[in-house]
Amino acid sequence: MEVEDIFSDLPTLETKRLFLRKVSLDDVHDIYAYGSNEEVSKFVTWETHKSLDETQAFVQYILSLYKNNNIAPWAIELKDTQKMIGTIDFVSWDTSQYIAEIGYVISQDYWGKGIVTEAAKEVIAFGFNHMELERIQAKCLVENIGSARVMEKAGMTFEGELRKAVFSKGKHWDVKIYSILREEFAAQK
User: What Cα–Cα distance (Å) separates residue 124 from each residue in 26, 163, 186?
Assistant: First the structure.
């Protein structure tokens, strides 16, 4: 299986409360609303968005990923309001090792509501059911307690801390790593 086999036409996924769909130009204002929030960008590798132009450039970058059949994020959209409130994606996929890593971000207005966990479970299921993965992992900065809880609630197992594994925003950060294996996913059903 190759990346373009899946990402040449990123499918829309559906959960009880969410649509996971392609990001579009219509999402610029929603992305800016959370991307410009310093609390949201505190624990991610990208810088806080300072202008709509920065967000527009980010969306154009995502659209180019879709166009070139590369790994690209799903927008997290609430079904009931049709509001785009975050993104989730496979940030990496090693097709020769059957391993991928997920990442996500969500508007602070929706923290603690189980939305990212719901999205993560759907993306994990997609990875095992359609991408032939054996292992899906995720990492978060040690300080990001909310993200660690998402991984645990999504059925992932804590494997340990990687010391100074990420250099971002001028310093090295320790990260926690979690994973779920194909057989663990199957046992949860």
Answer: 27, 26, 11
- For residues 147 and 43, is the Cβ–Cβ distance under 8 A? yes
- Architecture of the domain delimited by 3-188: 3-Layer(aba) Sandwich (3.40)
Query: What does the pLDDT look like over 80-131, one tens digit per residue?
Result: 999 999 999 999 999 999 999 999 999 999 999 999 999 999 999 999 999 9
Residue spans of the domains in the chain: they are: 3-188
Q: Return d(Cα 176, Cα 149) in angstroms, integer.
A: 11
Stated as kind and residue range, the H or E segment containing 163 is: strand 157-168
- Assign 182 to helix, strand or coil: helix
Cβ neighbourhood burial of 117 (10 Å; 0-12, 13-18, 19+): middle
Helices (H), 110-174: 115-130, 145-153
Is the full-model pTM beyond 0.85?
yes
| Coil vs helix vs strand at 93 | strand
Helix (H, G, I), strand (E, B) or coil at 3: helix
Q: Which residues pair with 101 in a beta bridge?
A: 92, 137
Whole-angstrom CA distances from 53 to 28, 49, 113, 167 are 9, 9, 30, 26
